[in-house]
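Researcher: I'm preparing a figure for a lab meeting and need a structural model of a single chain. I don't have an experimental structure, so a prediction will have to do for now. The sequence is pasted below. Please return the structure as tokens so I can convert it later.
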Amino acid sequence: MAFETFAKNRMPSKGQPAVTIQKRGALSLNNAAFEAIGAPAFVELLYDPDERLIGIRKSDEDTPHAYAVRGTGINQATRVVSGKAFLSYYDIPRKVARRWIAEERDGMLVIDLKQPGTEVSGHSSRAHEGGG
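Model: Understood. Here is the structure written out token by token.
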């Protein structure tokens, strides 16, 4: 078995927006990600297939393609959006849960799938603290 050096940037700091694509198809946003897009009750999911970028943008319940955002975890600190149909339609892998540091662009959270992201394992409260 080979040793691997832990890179400090693997886990986002509490103030750094992060989005996790879960194995069951949900997208979870840590509190920093949720706040970065205005703490919405509804979002739109967007995809740029050429650049392999996922966008998450604030929306409202009257938008026909809006997804509800629900809180989970300790103190509802992680927000979850059901994205199974979205991920399946664009053939975005979800065999393992993976977290990306998100970037805010023009009021939208952007996740770059060209980056490997960080594999997330376990379903403990520790997995949700600050990293969602």
